[in-house]
Design goal:
Layout: H1 3-16, H2 21-28, H3 32-39, H4 47-57, H5 61-66, H6 75-121, H7 126-153, E1 156-158, E2 165-166, H8 170-175, E3 178-179, E4 182-186, E5 193-199
Helix pairs in contact: 2-3, 6-7
């Protein structure tokens, strides 16, 4: 999607309905700075307010994502293009999240080991040693919590039995046996347990 084109289209539609950036922002319950960012192509409207924005501007979501009013002749084609683009953007975002998961896991482990090393070899009071080790474990567990949460929501797990791809609950991911990003879980479609691999795309 062309954010610059979409931004200019938002500005044109806003002016057609005789609204200032401030007035549009007030109707949506956001700041005029957010509207300014949209119109300059720096950011996109949040999906939570996209329908309301379109209603105010007298356009539909497909028009908004195309950056122009789409005619009936090419409506279906543009809709398919927008859906494909949104899927592509989600897959790229999931890849970045999974890379962040690795970084968080490594960082949390390094911090824990560093604090244990300091507590073991640097001269200090026993209560300080205990505090350092405890702090290391707290940070490590917090890192693990966020890493597992990222793994749960980024991409999908694929059932080895039926091939179904889905996003499991956090509890299912957290309690499952695993080897790397492959986890032993029950498929919600076929109901069978198997070692399920993490995949990026839905299909």
């Amino acid at each position: 999607m062309d954010q610059i084109k979409i931004g200019k289209f938002i500005a044109e539609c806003r002016k057609k309905v005789n609204l200032t950036q401030m007035q549009l922002a007030e109707k949506l319950g956001i700041t005029d700075k957010a509207v300014s960012k949209w119109e300059r192509g720096i950011a996109m409207p949040d999906s939570a307010i996209m329908l309301e924005l379109c209603d105010i501007l007298n356009i539909n979501v497909n028009d908004l994502l195309c950056g122009e009013v789409v005619t009936m002749d090419n409506y279906k084609k543009e809709l398919e293009n927008n859906l494909l683009e949104m899927i592509k953007q989600k897959e790229e975002a999931d890849r970045r999240l999974l890379a962040a998961e690795v970084f968080i896991g490594i960082t949390a482990t390094v911090i824990l080991l560093a604090l244990i090393f300091i507590a073991a070899f640097v001269q200090m009071e026993n209560w300080m040693r205990f505090s350092l080790v405890a702090l290391g474990f707290v940070l490590f567990l917090a890192g693990c919590f966020y890493a597992v949460r990222i793994e749960q929501v980024a991409g999908y797990y694929q059932c080895k039995k039926c091939g179904h791809r889905y996003v499991p609950t956090y509890k299912a991911v957290n309690l499952a046996m695993h080897m790397g990003r492959t986890r032993y879980m029950r498929c919600p479609k076929c109901g069978k347990k198997s070692w399920q691999k993490k995949v990026i795309s839905k299909e």
